[in-house]
Amino acid sequence: ADSAARSAEVLAEAIKANILPRDLLTREAFENAISVIMAVGGSTNAVLHLLAIARTAGVPLTIDDFETIRQRVPVICDLKPSGRYVTTDLHAAGGIPQVMKLLLDAGLLHGDCRTIEGKTLRETLAAIPSVPRPDQDVIRPLSNPLYAKGHLAVLKGNLASEGSVAKISGVKNPQVTGPARVFESEETCLAAILEGQIQAGDVVVIRYEGPVGGPGMREMLSPTSAIIGQGLGDKVALITDGRFSGGTYGMVVGHVAPEAAVGGTIGLVQEGDSITVDAHQLLIQLNVDDAELARRRAAWSAPVPRYTTGVLGKYSRLVSSSSLGAVTDQP
To answer: Quick check: pTM over 0.70?
Structure first.
């Protein structure tokens, strides 16, 4: 109740002071947001959302900026699904303010960014301790991170020329080369997993689930949960032009762009093709030569859209690539 009351006061004061969203949504603020996401081990969905918000705010931000920031910001919070604790534990240990203070002291945040209270970030965090409490191990010091680099890696290659996003925290096999098991929807993939048709070493491909193909980029939560349920969580890779939920764990690569529905290479993969996913080299590659890919591309035709009328029909006609935030007003 205190927090809600204070939020209302701050909002009223911001209106009086004429603090507008675009005053706060600067390039530096987006860099701060990405840094915090990396430090806490946040969801792959942050990539989509921040790209879309930046586009709306008129701030230049690309998928490659996430990789640049990942290289300098470590994961310092031990949180599920790849770690041990949950968000309430993070809150009790000092929460996001404590995480931000550690990043600020290390020069990994822009302290001059303004907040909705009219203060700078540095002023807002002034009273937060510079060292996390010794009686907890949810938030680690930067000198002892969970991972030396961020966990949201941008993978590129002939299978995702515009990029794809992998959450690589806790992944035991960051380099996988295996045969493609191809599915045209989440449902057909789930049925195959539950019937025991997926083997260790397979690279599961779920396509036509991107912004246009879905339409709307559904979260592939059921297949990833089923893979873990079958004991294959560390033994197979899964790639998709769809999304994942924050609860997803394992060698999974989402947001593959360009997506299958617009002619992306993921739509040309055939059952049994060799695919390499390598988080160390930031590579996602279909091991098929260019001449064969050109032949397949010439034979490919776009599927009939799942919706042609109404809001979903309009959305699928307007929506951009996931690498641009899947916004509907891209020129």
So the answer is: yes
